[in-house]
Specification:
Elements: H1 3-16, H2 18-53, E1 57-62, H3 65-70, H4 81-93, E2 97-103, H5 105-116, E3 133-138, H6 144-151, E4 157-162, H7 163-206, H8 208-216, H9 221-256, H10 261-264, H11 273-302
Helix pairs in contact: 1-9, 2-7, 2-9, 2-11, 7-9, 7-11, 9-11
């Protein structure tokens, strides 16, 4: 098959259905940009999990005098020095514990004033109203329940709190947004496939006389179908290139410049350029193969060869 013939037929087909070709390019670009964005969002969530879960602490808050009067967990009174010493000894013996840090009432009051000094409540608090606590760094953040089971309800312990639970709510929100993006991507992908099939159908119908003559002179089915398949593949590839551009530009302006989230949100460990660049070949391959396969199956119905 002459390459010049195939290329000329591709050009003719794309020009004849310019409006529909444009719609295919746009829908493929948007759907694959959402697909790539979803993959990057998933990488971002996993990166944040690895970064923050490694830093979360389990906090064991100890009973103070005011808790003894109002909290059922502290009904036996404020924590004693012996109870504090026993709690620390037991913590240090546990294999899941990496390190234990004690925070006194004065230290807790100081930290509270630093974080919430502008709050009206801060002016009415005194150090003796704050709770002593042990901050436990775990070797595996998933082992929180081991600490909770061992110390929750123990004499002198007001509560056991896991910071991972707060992060789980955040990551759950991000994953929910990711699922919504995937759902939108799936919808756009269906639209793109329908447009590709319709474009191929219109193109095959407009050239039915040419394909009929080609069949009469003995042209093979592959020879007749190839220009139509290549038209869809070229349109999809253009959309894939645009989708890659969207991802690169989005990463550049949202994280590095423009919004510059990497500078404004220093506590977030953002994904790097390597994560973006590794997704581009997948997007380009999908943009080429998806329309080509859709056109191939559409031709079996609309182009009898």
């Amino acid at each position: 098959m002459r390459a010049q013939f195939v290329l000329s037929e591709i050009g003719v087909g794309l020009r004849r259905n310019l409006t529909m070709t444009f719609a295919v390019v746009v829908s493929v670009a948007l759907s694959l940009a959402l697909f790539g964005g979803s993959l990057l969002m998933n990488d971002q969530v996993n990166t944040m999990k690895g970064y923050w879960y490694d830093k979360v602490n389990v906090s064991i808050f100890l009973c103070n005098k005011s808790d003894a009067e109002s909290d059922p967990n502290c009904a036996r009174g404020a924590v004693t020095d012996d109870q504090k010493g026993q709690i620390k000894t037991d913590l240090e013996k546990m294999s899941v514990v990496d390190s234990v840090t004690y925070e006194s009432q004065d230290e807790a009051y100081k930290h509270y004033k630093e974080q919430f000094g502008d709050s009206p409540l801060a002016s009415s608090l005194t150090p003796d109203q704050m709770q002593e606590s042990y901050r436990i760094k775990l070797k595996d953040p998933e082992k929180y329940q081991v600490i909770a089971t061992a110390f929750d309800g123990r004499d002198g312990v007001q509560s056991v709190q896991d910071q991972k639970g707060i992060l789980d709510n955040l990551f759950g929100l991000l994953e929910g947004m990711n699922i919504a993006a995937l759902a939108m991507m799936a919808l756009m992908l269906v639209v793109a496939l329908m447009l590709i099939v319709n474009t191929v159908r219109v193109s095959a119908f407009s050239r039915r006389r040419e394909t009929g003559i080609m069949r009469l002179v003995g042209a093979s089915g592959f020879y007749i179908q190839t220009p139509f398949i290549m038209e869809a593949a070229v349109a999809g590839l253009i959309g894939g290139i645009l989708a890659c551009g969207f991802l690169v530009v989005g990463r550049y302006f949202i994280i590095d410049h423009g919004l510059a989230l990497s500078e404004k949100l220093n506590l977030i460990n953002f994904i790097g350029w390597d994560a973006v660049l590794t997704k581009l070949p997948l997007i380009l391959a999908t943009s080429l193969l998806m329309p080509a396969l859709a056109a191939f199956f559409a031709l079996r119905k609309y182009l009898k060869v």
